[in-house]
Amino acid sequence: MAVAADPSASWLKSRNDFLSSLGKTEEQVAAPEFPKELCQHKIREKFRLEDVQVSIKFRGSITAVEATKEFGVHLLIQPMVVQPWEVENLLFLTSEEDLQELMVAVFDDASLASYFYEKDKLLGFHYYFVAEACKLFEELQWVPSLSAKVGGDAIFTATSLQGSFQVVDISLRLDGKNVRCRLLLPEDTFQSCQKFFSGLHDESDLHNIDQTQQISLSVEVGYSQLTQEEWHQVVPGSFIMLDSCLYDPETEESGALLTVQKHQFFGGRFLTPSSGEFKITSYPNLTHEDPPLPENPQASAAPLPGYSRLVVEVARYSLAVSEFIKLNLGSILSLGNHPAYGVDIILDGAKVGRGEIIALGDVLGIRVLEV
């Protein structure tokens, strides 16, 4: 059976998404860097301002009450639509006080700005401001395929907002005047946002990643599931049956999967016990010769409710991002270890013991040596 020489597009996307996520929390979005300098330049030109500073900060998940109370009782909530997100609705939040500050900065004349302080005229200025923001967003070409537009009439109370929102703060300093705005993304919109930006990643994004950052590969040869009660009964000498195992204790031949943060990126095989070397021979989900994947496709997946995931780990191997990117079929890693010399027992990501893989009849499992 021929070995596939190149990874699939889905494998490359999975790898690039993982690399792009390094250093970010799960809540953050792996978006391209926002062109802040260009944005400030365009605002200066548009309104003939001397000093313009723009700050954008992701705040994470905040309750609707907390997200709106900082803007006082005189707030404006503008429904917006962002395309082509699958779920496209979000809210643009500001206050009457901030709009008045913006007017003074734009008109450079407090008396002229006061003309708009009446509620109906203030609302007209609000729509003008939102329209200009959408136009600026388009001109910046931050993400050419992305567009924003007004999604309905402005509302003046937060009483209808429930639950929590992912929050992005936008602060403007315009010739000494401070203006605050806030984006409120419902959870389903935020997930759509994450999915959209994840789909933008390609090979050209990799040069923006810290190439010296260290990645830890887990070399895994077996999997099982057991309850916490079953684990608490384990003592040295106990036998834990494995749901899947890539090591043959009789021949000492072994395959393994190279995993990073639960992402299985490579399959391969150990060359000899004495050399401690490991050769990459496959990409997951591609045609390959060695090693065979577990017969039970669920064996290495998330554990069933009430069960913990047990991983049989031979070694941890650290390498820089620049070296990880170069790994492909035929790459050889000097692990300095082999399943024949014992394995670590990993339960829900934490090392809890050590053992050796043995066969009891036709059943492969771990004889526990240390807990």
TrEMBL record:
InterPro entries, per the entry: FliN-like_C (IPR001543), SpoA-like_sf (IPR036429), T3SS_SpaO/YscQ/SpaO (IPR013385)
Q: Which UniProt keywords apply?
A: Cell projection, Cilium, Flagellum
The record places domain Flagellar motor switch protein FliN-like C-terminal at: 310-371
Highest taxon of source: Bacteria
Gene3D superfamilies assigned:
SpoA-like
Q: What family is this?
A: Belongs to the FliN/MopA/SpaO family.
Q: What is this protein called?
A: Flagellar Motor Switch Domain/YscQ family
Organism of origin = Chlamydia pneumoniae
